[in-house]
Specification:
By secondary structure, this protein is α/β, with parallel strands linked by helices. Among the domains are: 1-161, no CATH class; 402-507, no CATH class. Helix content is 41%, strand content 10%. It has 21 helices and 12 strands. Strands 5-6-7-8-9-10 form a 6-stranded parallel sheet. Helix 3 (134-151) links the parallel strand 6 (123-127) and strand 7. Helix 3 packs parallel to helix 4, helix 4 (168-175) crosses helix 6 (202-223) and helix 4 (168-175) packs parallel to helix 10 (279-304). The longest helix is centred in the middle third of the chain and has 26 residues, at 279-304. The radius of gyration is 26 Å and the shape is globular. The N and C termini lie far apart (63 Å).
Length: 524
């Protein structure tokens, strides 16, 4: 790419490309952003205000879907697809010959406000390649966010990706203007990073995560809950621990493992700790970070009242690019939730956009079903009180392709069933396939007033075609109750909507009207 000139805008050095209109840049940079997952509601509630533009509704981010099935939210663009890194899985890697473009902060602000005024978007999702250096790129992103908030008075939702390796002060600065921040873990193991993303290190990824977590906590302390709420995983785990779920379900009889309850120092958990510093350096670094935070709190936080990354932080892992098992992936996700209080871990099925000997072949296309199962398991960990070690083990490291993780867990633990819905506590009800958090709460509330029937359960939202094999209601069953694992598994599979390739494998393929049977061709 030939550069026409360099200019200074808002105190930042900005690159202007020769011969590219804003529309051309938008086409290049929005297409380059489609593999960065953002299928989430905002998690941020902020009403409109006189003299400013926009608002943010907690669950108000609308979604659309691209041709390859990706969920696209907000105005989702890269600041630049120029990149000095050569990650083997990335379309924007430095060695690829693709059209390159970069916005200026002013151009991106004008686009965001223009789209918002036309009601096309409800906010901005901003990621970026790395132009020149991580600090240079992060400084341009910070300037964009500052202009949107202070010059254009934009109150809508902003999700900003932090650039690994950037100066902590720049990440701190961005956090006061963005609603949510995220640092992509990309690959769940150090081996995967060394193999496919040699320019990235675990330290450069986990360091900003810890900084964002600390910033949210301190903002919550100084500005109240405007600094971001805890994650769903945090509240579910707290309630589950109080209810004794750890003692009830974390034992050898049920999950067949030697894993200890939470709080036991010998508990097995993936190591996500950052590289250690000597105590004096660590103390000095901590004091400097606190000083930077308080300085920016006075400059930005108190004047705006937004709080630091008030909608929390998230991350993303690529699925299928490296040979990790599902058990490894959900264990890493659980460790991230526990240690960094993440709002979400996103899973992105690997799409092969580059030819490289280290990348796997995908004869069946991206592993979308595997991605779906991981999201289901993630939901169970965040809202149902399940632990990674309950859903999978080293002996059974991958999810069932034909049963969702909750049903698969239930058929492997038939000794816990049937559950009497008129007596079981909330967290035991959550273990029943077909009963979710809402229906479990309705059951607990309804039985305070008296008994109810299976028809009442259906009206409460219980999916009886799944739950009927695991529950009794007032001592009664819905049809035949058989607790034999094979029978229940086959019955559940019959109720599942399976992908066509799995249907063909299980039940055989439906022949075409014009297709001759194999024996006819031989006979002829």
């Amino acid at each position: 790419m030939l550069f026409q000139c360099l200019t200074v805008e808002g105190g930042c050095l900005v690159v202007l490309e020769e011969g590219l209109s804003i529309e051309q840049k938008l086409e290049i940079l929005s297409d380059a952003a489609k593999y960065d997952v953002a299928c989430t509601s905002s998690g941020m509630q902020r009403e409109g205000k006189a003299g400013e533009i926009g608002n943010s509704v907690a669950a108000g981010i609308c979604h659309s879907f691209s041709a390859d099935g990706r969920c696209i939210s907000l105005l989702k663009v890269l600041f630049t697809n120029e990149c000095i890194f050569d990650c083997k899985y990335c379309i924007n890697r430095s060695s690829n010959d693709v059209p390159r473009a970069s916005f200026t902060p002013r151009e991106l602000c004008e686009l965001t406000i223009g789209f918002y005024k036309r009601n096309y978007i409800e906010g901005l999702f901003l990621s970026s390649g790395i132009l020149h250096t991580p600090d240079y790129t992060m400084e341009l992103i910070c300037e964009t966010l500052r202009m949107l908030r202070e010059e254009y008075h934009f109150r809508g939702y902003i999700h900003c990706k932090a650039i690994p390796g950037a100066n902590p002060l720049l990440i701190e600065y961005a956090g006061w203007y963005a609603d949510r921040m995220s640092v992509n873990l990309e690959l769940p193991t150090n081996e995967g990073l060394r193999s496919l993303a040699p320019n990235k290190t675990r330290k450069n990824i986990l360091g900003p995560m810890r900084q964002i977590q600390d910033g949210i906590a301190e903002s919550r302390q100084y500005l109240g809950m405007k600094g971001g709420n805890h994650s769903a995983f945090y509240f579910t785990k707290k309630a589950a621990t109080k209810a004794g779920i750890e003692q009830r379900f974390y034992n050898d009889r049920i999950n067949g493992s030697n894993r200890k309850p939470e709080g036991d120092k010998k508990s097995e958990e993936p190591k996500l700790s950052e590289e250690k510093k000597i105590p004096e350096e660590k103390e000095k670094a901590s004091l400097q970070k606190t000083s930077n935070r308080l300085s920016l709190l006075e400059q930005v936080g108190r004047s705006t009242g937004r709080g630091f990354a008030a909608a929390g932080q998230s991350t993303q892992m690529i699925i299928g690019a490296t040979p990790e098992t599902d058990y490894q992936l959900v264990s890493v996700a659980e460790a991230l939730y526990r240690k960094f209080d993440l709002k979400r871990v996103f899973y992105s099925a690997f799409v092969k956009v580059n030819e490289d000997s280290l990348l796997p072949d995908l004869p069946g296309g991206p592993p979308l079903l595997r991605e779906h199962r991981l999201y289901q398991a993630d939901w169970l960990m965040r809202y149902y009180g399940f632990a990674a070690g309950e859903l999978l083990t080293e002996a059974r490291p991958n999810f069932n392709a034909v049963l969702d993780p909750k049903c698969d867990w239930a058929v492997h633990h038939m000794e816990l069933f049937p559950v009497e819905v008129l007596k079981a506590d909330y967290f035991l009800l959550l273990r029943v396939p077909g009963i979710g958090p809402k229906s479990a709460k309705r059951i607990v509330e309804a039985r305070r007033s008296g008994s109810f029937s299976f028809d009442d359960l259906k009206r409460m939202g219980v999916v009886l075609k799944r739950a009927q094999y695991f529950i009794t209601c007032g001592g009664k069953t819905l049809g035949r109750l058989c607790l034999e694992e094979t029978y229940v598994t086959q019955s559940l599979i019959l109720n599942e909507k399976l992908p066509k390739n799995l249907q063909d494998a299980l039940y055989g393929r439906q022949m075409s009207l014009f297709e001759l049977p194999a024996f006819s061709a031989v006979a002829g």
